[in-house]
Amino acid sequence: MREADRRLGLIKSVAARLSDKRQKGKVRHEAVTLLRRRVMALCAGWEDLNDAEALAADPVHQLPSGADRLGSAPTLSRIVRLYTAPD
Asked: pLDDT-based confidence at 66, cuts 50/70/90?
């Protein structure tokens, strides 16, 4: 999945089109990294955001996400709500 995404640039392209409304001074994880992590988890069958804590320490999950330090479950929940909540 990671290699296909790297070649096609789908997640990066989607992230570039999303408006990141988070407070810039508080951002620790780029939106593209969080989006990539969420998409890769969904592709691997991890639908529940509560699993994010367990997966954060898993090197197999870190590799496709492209980050050494992954956002917490609350961070992922906030960004999912940000992009899925009606305006």
From this structure: low
To the nearest 10 degrees (0 to 180), the angle between helices 31-43 and 10-17 is: 130
Confidence category of residue 7, pLDDT binned at 50, 70, 90? very high
Mind spelling out the 3-state secondary structure of the chain?
Answer: CHHHHHHHCHHHHHHHHCCCCCCHHHCCCCHHHHHHHHHHHHHCCCCCHHHHHHHHCCHHHHHHHCCCCCCCHHHHHHHHHHHHCCC
Rounded-to-integer distance, Cα 2 and Cα 49, Å: 20
Distance CA(9)–CA(55), nearest Å, equals 23
| pLDDT at position 87 over 70 | no
